[in-house]
Specification:
The protein is built from ten helices and nine strands. The chain is an alpha/beta fold and 213 residues long. The strands form three sheets. The chain has a four-stranded parallel beta sheet, sandwiched between helices. It has a three-stranded parallel beta sheet with strand order 6-7-8. Strands 4-5 form a two-stranded parallel ribbon. Strand 7, helix 7 and strand 8 form a beta-alpha-beta unit. Helix 2 runs parallel beside helix 10 and helix 3 packs parallel to helix 4.
């Protein structure tokens, strides 16, 4: 629990969680350094590609200032790979009790995805205080999060999905929002083209927006 509290504090301090898809593990460290240069010391590397485990491992080794989590974790095998690679937290798109239980047994802080009251109550039953609200915009966005805070005042949310420069500050202005997930500053084409300077610039702009929340 202590480790999870520390992770939550670090994500809350960042206010923004970049959702990263890496096709090549060799791009992981340059990307991490680009994010750090832009002022962000946290990233979620998604298990949407075969490079995810290696990418997380490289970041832990060569960019130790970066808090790195594993995202889109759907199976026990992916969870085990994430833990072995050194992921410091896990994010899932939905609420799978099997994955939550396995992560807790492994001592890995987990932020499962929910988008309704039932999901929030499931999370609470496992002692969780932070959930991913996904997909944020299609699920009702800010009004829906505000509605959930009535019956569940202790829950914190990391909305992800449809969030960008135009609405980031509005989401962060909601007290129940711990941080926002987003991918515009780590666009797949920018990573593919190895345009890390642009990633740093977009990250710095995003960080500036978080201060308005």
């Amino acid at each position: 629990m202590a480790a999870g509290t520390d992770i939550q504090k670090r994500i809350a301090a960042a206010r923004l969680l970049p959702v990263v898809v890496l096709e090549r593990a060799e791009d992981a460290v340059p990307l991490a350094r680009a994010l750090l240069k832009g002022g962000l010391a946290v990233a979620e590397v998604t298990f949407r590609t075969a490079a995810a485990s290696d990418a997380i491992s490289r970041i832990r080794k060569d960019a130790p200032d970066m808090l790195v989590g594993a995202g889109t974790v759907l199976t026990r095998e992916q969870l085990a790979d994430a833990g072995a690679a050194g992921a410091q937290f896990v994010v899932t798109p939905g609420f799978n009790p099997t994955i939550v239980e396995a992560a807790q047994a492994a001592g890995l802080p987990i932020v499962p995805g929910v988008n309704n009251p039932t999901g929030v109550e499931q999370a609470m039953s496992y002692g969780l205080e932070t959930v991913k609200f996904f997909p944020a915009e299609p699920s009702g966005g800010i009004p829906f999060i505000k509605a959930l805070t009535g019956p569940y005042p202790g829950m914190r949310f990391v909305p992800t999905g449809g969030i960008g420069p135009g609405n980031l500050a509005s989401y962060l202005a909601v007290p129940a929002v711990l941080a926002c997930g987003g991918s515009w500053m780590v666009d797949a084409k920018l990573i593919h083209d190895r345009n890390f300077e642009e990633i740093s610039r977009l990250t710095a702009e995003a960080v500036a927006l978080t201060r308005k929340g």
